[in-house]
Amino acid sequence: MPEVPAARRRLFDLALWLLLSLPVLLRSDPNDGGSWFQVAAGVTVLGGCVAVSRRWPLLPLAVTVAASLPASLELFTPSYSLALVAFGYLAGRRQDHTRGSLLLFGTVAAVGLVLTRLTGTSLGPWFTLMLALALAIVAPWLVGRYVRQYDRLVRSGWELADRMEREQAAVADRERLRERSRIAGDMHDSLGHDLALIAVRAGALEVDPGLGPEQQRAAGELRRAAAEATERLRDVIGVLREEGEGAPTTPSDETVGELVDRARASGLDVTLRGDGPVPEPAGMAGRALHRVVQEGLTNAAKHAPGAAVTVELREAASRVTVRVVSGPGEGVGESGSGGFGLVGLDERVRLAGGTLTHGPVRGGGFALTAVLPRRTPAAVPAAPTSARELDRARRRVRKDLVRAIWIPLALLAALSVLTAGVALWSQSRSYLEPDNYARLLVGQEYAELVEDLPDHALEAPPAGLPPEPVGADECRYYRATVFAEVPVYRLCFTGGRLSSRDELG
User: Fold this and answer.
1) Angstrom distance (rounded) from CA 245 to CA 416
2) Please, which contacts does 451-458 make with residues 24 or more away whose CB atoms are closer than 8 Å?
3) Which of these three, 167, 183, 217, is where a domain ends?
4) Contact predicate 54/9, CB 8 Å
5) What is the pLDDT of residues 190-209, one digit of tens each?
6) pTM (predicted TM-score)
């Protein structure tokens, strides 16, 4: 429930108390068959009900029902009918759960039936009580439930809008963090690879006998500078990389063959093998394939300088397999760059719909293998949590609206069917079959013909019948047909004997 200022709550409760007290004042005063004591008691009770209705929404409804049943078994009283409607609505509007309300409705129906049997009255007042329960209590309660759910839907919409405004304030920060992570990935993928190749070429110049000592020393310094630059690059990557960020997807402008040729030109002993020309996948799968080869060559140049490297590229059905195997070398494939190389590579391959495996091979060396699909599977975007919450709130409102319509209609239909069944049953108990009526003889004692008579006679004769015979002690009326009020059989008794029998109507 939305928060309402205390002053407005008190003003609303005061107005509600005055409104509900008005019928009590008009219908329970001495001029209308009541008393001022009843007025004072009713107004006081209603005031207490209004006071506790926010904390205990069902209590005022139960108290009002308890005050109405002694006055009328039909639950409809001019003094408290408005209170039943108001407290029924407020119970639905303010109550979180429905179990207590349903229990109260069932209790009211059961207590009304018990009181009907205890007072010896017919079931007619109980049917009227059920009708009043459905229209004056259950229907307002359902309307209150609908209004509550509708307010919840509106509140969810405003909360969603407020949440979006707060999130927009953090979008720029998140984008900057993502960009920093992309920069870190690019630096690792591109600069790390290029620095490794520079170190390989400088190492080759350092041992070239055709160069003088000064040139060899300069080449050694260049190799050491490349190694130090690689270490500094690792530190920068550690600062820029965002924790939990997926692998970047920066496209590459060169093919696998061009990448292998460039590495071979830098002095790396690398061979490209395959079953003929293999078309490289497009999109994210192609970029992942390029990165696998690049990472494998970088690790080989960094951790196994001088070792032979083999790049195998094979095609099978709708998938492409690439395998980079480097010769023996100490520390091959280890976390020389902080462990981000293979971790990021695994994330990129996974996002492209493939699998990545890596590890030592028999006889020494290290293998990096990736299996990639020809086409990257399309990702199905998940619905935002806020949108799902809003959709659930809408469905709850629609369900409550449907309940507010069909439950009262279903109760009315059930009461109509039950009333018709009870009426038919009652009529059948006062139906005198024509054959039994024909066997009745004037002058018979009541004990002789009681077996041919129904269990119950009509409580009152239908209107418009002729007057009863003069001198008859008692006349009983029975239905001649099950469904119609007339004709009826009239049996009159004098001195315990049948004095006349007539078919009337």
Assistant:
1) 66
2) 453/478, 453/491, 454/429, 454/430, 454/478, 455/429, 455/430, 456/426, 456/429, 456/430, 457/430, 458/430, 458/488
3) 167
4) yes
5) 666 677 777 777 777 766 77
6) 0.41
User: Going edge to edge, which strands form the sheet with 309-316?
Assistant: 270-274, 309-316, 319-326, 366-373, 355-360
Q: How far apart are CA 88 and CA 141, in angstroms?
A: 5
Q: What residues form DSSP beta bridges with 377? A: none
Looking at residue 451, which CATH number applies to its domain? 3.30.1450.10
Residue 33 per-residue DSSP state: T
Q: What confidence tier does 247 reach under pLDDT thresholds 50, 70, 90?
A: very low
Q: How far apart are CA 484 and CA 428, in angstroms?
A: 11
Q: Which residue carries 């492409």 as its tokens?
A: 320
Cα gap 319→316, rounded to integer Å: 5
Answer whether residue 302 shows pLDDT above 60.
Answer: yes
- The reply to whether 189 falls in a domain is no
CA distances (Å), origin 140, targets 132, 143, 400:
11, 5, 12
Distance CA 264, CA 103 (A): 84
Which of 54-63, 237-246, 312-321, 394-403 is predicted least confidently? 237-246
Structure tokens belonging to residue 196: 């490794």
Question: Using an 8 Å Cβ cutoff, are 269 and 308 in contact?
Answer: yes
**In Å, how far are 74, 185, 252, 272, 456 from 258, measured between CA atoms?**
94, 21, 11, 11, 108
Helices then strands, counting H and E runs in the chain, come out as 15, 8
Per-residue pLDDT at 244: 47
- Total residue length of the chain: 505
Q: Cα–Cα distances in Å, from 124 out to 66, 113, 337? A: 20, 10, 89
Residue with tokens 């695994």: 346
Distance CA(269)–CA(256), nearest Å, equals 16
Predicted confidence (pLDDT) per residue in 437-472, tens digit: 988 999 899 888 888 888 788 877 888 888 888 888
Q: Could you tell me the two tokens for 201?
A: 């070429």
Q: Residue 422's pLDDT is what? A: 63
Q: Looking at the structure, do residues 287 and 140 belong to the same domain, yes or no?
A: no
**91 and 158, same domain (yes or no):** yes
